[in-house]
Design goal:
The protein is about 85% helix and about 0% strand. The chain is mostly helical and about 170 residues long. It folds into 2 domains: about 70 residues, no CATH class; about 80 residues. Helix 2 crosses helix 3 and helix 3 runs antiparallel to helix 4.
Length: about 170
C-alpha cells in the first residue's frame, strides 16, 4: 500500500454519511478561515489578489489541520497497538507463572504428600508418634498444595474468574 492510499484511508471516513460530513466540515472550515483572514485585515477584500491570498491561506490552514488529524489518528493506532501488546505480554506472563506453579512446585508438593503417606504405611504400630507426625506432615503438604492451586487460580484477571463462576 503506497503513501497516498494510506493518507486517503486515514482521511476518509468509512461510511458514506461520514464522508459527506467530513466534506461539509472541510468546506465550512475553508469558508470560515477565508472570512477570518479578510476580517483580520490581512488582505484587501476588494482586491482579487487579496481574496485569492485569503483562500490560499485558508487552504493552507485546512491542510495543516488535516495533517494534525492524520498524525493524531496514527498516534491513536500506535497507542492501541501498544496496549494490545502490553495486555498480550501480561497474559503470557500470567500463563507462564500458572504453568510453572502447576508443573513445578505443585507437582512436587503432591509427590511429597504421596511419599509421606506411603512412608506412613510402613511405620510399625509401636511408633505411633512417628505415624501421627507423618500424617500431620502429609496433611500440611496437601493443604499447601490446595492453597497454591487457589493462589494460581487467583492470577486470572477478574473478568475470567467471573466468566468461570457463571458457568458453574
Amino acid at each position: 500500500m503506497n503513501i497516498p492510499t494510506r493518507v486517503v484511508r486515514l482521511l476518509l471516513p468509512s461510511t458514506r454519511r461520514g464522508a459527506v460530513l467530513a466534506i461539509c466540515a472541510a468546506a465550512v472550515f475553508l469558508v470560515v478561515e477565508t472570512v477570518l483572514v479578510i476580517l483580520l485585515k490581512q488582505v484587501e477584500p476588494s482586491s482579487p489578489v487579496g481574496v485569492v491570498y485569503a483562500v490560499l491561506t485558508a487552504m493552507a490552514l485546512l491542510a495543516n489541520f488535516v495533517v494534525g488529524v492524520v498524525v493524531a489518528r496514527k498516534a491513536v493506532h500506535a497507542l492501541n497497538a501498544s496496549r494490545a501488546r502490553i495486555v498480550a505480554t501480561g497474559d503470557a506472563a500470567r500463563r507462564q507463572v500458572e504453568r510453572d506453579l502447576h508443573d513445578g512446585v505443585q507437582q512436587r508438593l503432591v509427590t511429597s504428600t504421596l511419599r509421606l503417606r506411603l512412608a506412613e504405611q510402613f511405620v510399625p504400630a509401636e511408633l505411633d508418634d512417628l505415624k501421627k507426625a507423618l500424617a500431620e506432615l502429609a496433611s500440611d503438604l496437601a493443604e499447601a498444595s490446595t492453597e497454591l492451586r487457589e493462589l494460581s487460580r487467583g492470577l486470572q484477571p477478574a473478568i475470567c474468574r467471573r466468566a468461570v463462576s457463571r458457568r458453574r
